[in-house]
Write the structure tokens for this entry.
Amino acid sequence: MRILFMGTPEFAVASLRRLVEEGHTICGVLTQPDKPRNRGHKVTFSPVKEYALSVCLDVYQPVTLRDEAALELVKGLAPELTVVAAYGKLLPEAILAVPPLGSINVHSSLLPKYRGAAPINWAILNGEETTGVSIMYMAKALDAGDVILQKSTPIGPDEDAPALTARLAQLGAEALSETVAALAAGTADRTPQNEAEMTYAPMLGRELSAMDWTRSAADLSCQVRGLIPWPCAQTEISGTRFKVYRTAPGGATDKAPGTLLSVGKLGIEVACGDGRSLYLTEIQAEGGKRMSAAAYLLGHPMEI
């Protein structure tokens, strides 16, 4: 099949790779313009661009899709199908309508739950036990199109957002493969989303970082896992601010929430609001490096 692919981050690479390996003709790859990244502000390629160039695909990086040039570009590529995976921009209806088989999206949630920019993070933040991927027809409204296929997977109790993202990328590639085959055979399902069950997963912000120790230990664990790699859960202990990357459950306690209970090889133990404690096991002090809490304590002892 002749496919136009649109995607930007690492999550999208698995889907593009699957289409290439299955022998589809990728008539073009659209990805976000190159941007300065990381502390050095060095201009780097998106993961999708890096992979596309490695297999000699044509890459296009329009600044906007809302002009005649973008529409003419897509028309000129003449795709039978457009596949979008975390591209990063809304597509105008005129571009969605170009391919005869439609434009479909690989979305990392079980729609209609968690429409929006950060579905993986919010599934973890909200303590969901199950998530998945949805392949849907794209529509004018954000992530509101009819669903073609879904695959679900449990969220591990210690799984953080990067780990879940990697798993869902592979699951999305599998679902996409099945969907493209069904579209080619004319057997693809089309199920409208139930708007009454819709939830939204907005972009993350720094306002989510502060750890409120009056919350339960389980909720705080979800906060830590859901905010990696950015903006990260943060807390202040003994006058030092830390980013928290990993935790472990503690035991019962009658101490006030936020009380420092113990420090040592198991980490930094803090009382939570549900009568349980939580160990901070991997941390980064402000201005320092990410490390185990035990290693940090060797050079920075704390008093209880």
In short: The helical segments are 10-21, 47-54, 68-77, 93-96, 119-125, 161-185, 217-226, 293-299.
